Fold this sequence. Notes:
Layout: E1 13-15, E2 22-24, H1 34-50, H2 56-59, H3 71-89, H4 93-108, H5 116-136, H6 140-153, H7 159-171, H8 175-189, H9 193-209
Antiparallel strand pairs: 1-2
Amino acid sequence: MSRSTDTFLLLPLQVDPDTSKVTFTPSPNLPSNLSSELAALNSLHHTLLTSETTSPASAGNIPPPPVPVNPKRSAAIAKLRTSGNDAYKKKQFNDAVRIYTLGIDMALGRPNWEPSGLVKDELYLLYANRSQAYMATGMWPEGLADAEASIDCKRAGNPKAHWRRGKCLKEMGRLEEAREALELGLEFGGEDADLKGLYKEVEEALERRR
């Protein structure tokens, strides 16, 4: 008995000579998912054509070589982070949040073929900085969420994010969780003095609560 996977089906497909969009002539015998599959294919084709890292003149509208990085996007993200830092130093905390958010959105918007490690390196700094800006205005839940996002991107070598996570939890009265967060931070952050100092404060607060 022949299996469906062994059956060859000639599909009535057409390619538009101007846009290269793939379409088909409707028929009751066609696979039910053909329309959605072609929509996904055409969407991918459009993304590749309009990507900033694609060079139509030299590459024929195909993805660039392995591990390409768009220098314009990298420079723009770095500039946004610097501008956010400048706004924070001027105590313009809402502006800092807005600028860091632009940087985060730009980093998250990188094409899928660019290195994921690069995205994480950009995001852990931006999330940690936005966390600090939220904390400066007493927005502890938002600061906590960003600190945790920063830690998700980079656990080791990121003591500031661990400290901010513990600080937000402490200010929200979640002392046991703060202690656990700071213990994790000390595990990954080694001998960081700020982490140790906050951990001592949390321990003392827990002792007073007993």
